[in-house]
Amino acid sequence: MEAAVFDNLPKKVYIREVGPRDGLQIEPEFVPTEVKAEFIRKLAATGVPHIEITSFVHPKWIPALADGKEIGGMFAEMNGTHTSALVPNMRGLEGAAEAGLKEVSVFMSASESHNKANINRAISESLKMFSELIPAIKKEGMGVIAAISVVCGCPFEGEVPPEKVAEIAGELVSYGADYIMLGDTIGVGTPIQVKRLLEKVMPLHDPQRIGLHLHDTQATALSNVLAGLEMGIACFDGAVGGLGGCPYAPGASGNLPTENLVYLLHGMGIETGIDLDALLEVADWCQRMVGHSLSSNGLRAYLGRKAAKKNAAEKNATGAHG
Amino acid sequence: MEAAVFDNLPKKVYIREVGPRDGLQIEPEFVPTEVKAEFIRKLAATGVPHIEITSFVHPKWIPALADGKEIGGMFAEMNGTHTSALVPNMRGLEGAAEAGLKEVSVFMSASESHNKANINRAISESLKMFSELIPAIKKEGMGVIAAISVVCGCPFEGEVPPEKVAEIAGELVSYGADYIMLGDTIGVGTPIQVKRLLEKVMPLHDPQRIGLHLHDTQATALSNVLAGLEMGIACFDGAVGGLGGCPYAPGASGNLPTENLVYLLHGMGIETGIDLDALLEVADWCQRMVGHSLSSNGLRAYLGRKAAKKNAAEKNATGAHG
Fold first, then answer.
1. Which helix (H) or strand (E) holds A237?
2. DSSP letters along B287-318, please?
3. Residue range A123-166, pLDDT digits in tens
4. Which residue numbers in chain B have pLDDT < 70?
5. Would you say A172 and A199 are in contact if contact means Cβ atoms under 8 Å apart?
6. Which residue blocks in chain A are alpha helix, DSSP H?
7. With an 8 Å Cβ cutoff, are A308 and B246 in contact?
8. Which of A5, A8, A248, A303 to mutate to test the interface with B (most CBs of B within 10 A)?
9. How far is B78 from chain A (nearest CA, A)?
């Protein structure tokens, strides 16, 4: 029975905080550059080991991150925190290199229709482009995180075969990608899909350099984390407060809230290096930054506990004087 | 590697819908009896196999369920759906028996302070009471579901030792309890705790008659379901829409939303007998019933998809005419 109680889980997990990029990119209101900078500094202070700070995509496509150059320049190096930015093409790479970034991420989809809708290319065209872009990034001395989207399901095609994802992952590894991040972009995956996918992808690359990027659209994100941990995965993305969303279901939950991920991991005795209370404070601050409430269960519970404590303290104070 | 991909999970899971009882009991506005009845009929129509319909607690304690007798009388028997009601004591049992119920649930806490706060008794006093109440229920020919609260953590004492929970479970089984429901009442548990707990409790009773009652306060509920499934548990409580809450953290998420549970299970190829879309419609209806929005991720995603479809249809219609 002992093996059933998780004695083979990773002892430490590497968390990539993607709130400043994946989270903010769909916010309708532009967050001023200095506020973004404050956000990134606050995140770093929680101890999160990696922050995806921005993207070098043309402002026409993602106006919310039009200040990629400035943010990139400010946080290309941070004491004790790895940073990276997303680059879609050679031009983006130039921007990231000029800014002095040490690591960048590239992305494509595992389904033809999502790749077409998202980056207006066939999968074969994206692969061709990456066969040049990834070596070019490596030549600049930068690390490459290659993200594959819609690995569990596509909004247009439904379930995506794990073999298709593995084929793409294998190509990206062969071009020189350091990390492969498997993204359940629309949050439809379940643990059985995650395990079947990992079975196909893990033989193709160092398992310590394969990660999961999960969305909580259907509340399955942490069960998928557990499935990943059971397979030996030790790298996960999160976005504080659950920033971000699902463009195919307005109002739906977004990225896996980093604080929920950290709660689960710490509760399982797995280290992250993150101060959970500090992170929850950042999540609360984020609600003010974006001007709307965030859907994270952990954040709501934290604020509820704080309100209950304050209430009790006030009652006591009244009692003492009355 | 194959064993890692869940080939030993239950093929079918028994879901107890507790929205009408555990969900409604904390609602500040009384839901009229005829609306509760409509709620229960709507739930039954989704195919859910079991509904906890009300409680026979004195209205002074739970005014929201003051109509327990009427609801009990109306739904003591339902064609194709099991129903049960919560009874706190002999007096409650009399009410449930008069109403003609076939099954009742009883409850106590696994921590002294929560038992004291919740039902004003020491654990030993509760056990003594149940050593008489449970046989009395059996004598009436009724089934007994014995629920143990705060099995993963107590708001006053912190982590609760699994040995303590197992001791109580063993007593309740010895008095004649048919089912043991282990409740993570404040939603603090993680999969490792759930598995350690089940390791202690499962040897004491038929594993097919041990269930988990999870709350989603920290978004860990579905990861705990997965841990339970991996141990062979095949009975879970849920509350549609995530009705209910955590009295120790106002505004926090409540019960595990049944629709999220069903999404996970169906996605893993596990049968529930429930029509998920019908259940999501009931969850949406519930928001109007209680007069506020519910926190379920699955519900928000469903409504988002519906809005997106409607939007697309309207655009098409405009296109056709313009």
1. strand A235-238
2. HHHHTS----HHHHHHHHHHHHHHHHHHHHHH
3. 999 999 999 999 999 999 999 999 999 999 999 999 999 999 99
4. 1-4, 319-322
5. no
6. 33-45, 68-75, 90-99, 112-119, 123-139, 162-175, 191-201, 221-231, 258-267, 276-290, 297-321
7. no
8. A5
9. 31
Angle at A196 between CA A195 and CA A200, to 5 degrees: 110
In chain A, the largest separation of any two C-alpha atoms, in whole Å, equals 76
| C-alpha–C-alpha distance, residues A306 and B276, integer Å | 35
**Amino acid type, B300:** R
- Coil, strand or helix: which one is B241? helix
A53 contact partners, CB below 8 Å, separation of at least 6: A20, A21, A40, A71, A72, A75, A83, A84, A85
Selection from A264, A185, A260 nearest residue A217 by Cα: A185
Judging by DSSP bridges, how do beta strands B50-55 and A179-184 pair with one another?
A: unpaired
How many other CB atoms sit within 10 Å of the CB of residue B101?
A: 26
Torsion of Cα atoms, A237 then B227 then B130 then B144, to 10°: 110
The whole-angstrom distance between B319's CA and the closest CA on chain A is 21
Distance CA B122, CA B130 (A): 12
- CB contact under 8 Å between B263 and A223, yes or no, is no
Q: Please, are residues A269 and B192 in contact by the beta-carbon 8 Å criterion?
A: yes
What is d(CA B74, CA B45) in angstroms, rounded to the nearest whole number? 16
- For residue B101, the one-letter residue type is L
d(CA A111, CA A122): 9
Domains and CATH numbers, chain B: 10-321 (3.20.20.70)
- pTM tops 0.90: yes
Chain A residues near residue B305 by CB distance under 8 angstroms: 248-249, 252
Distances, alpha carbon A3 to alpha carbons A8, A116, B220, B231, in Å: 8, 44, 21, 11
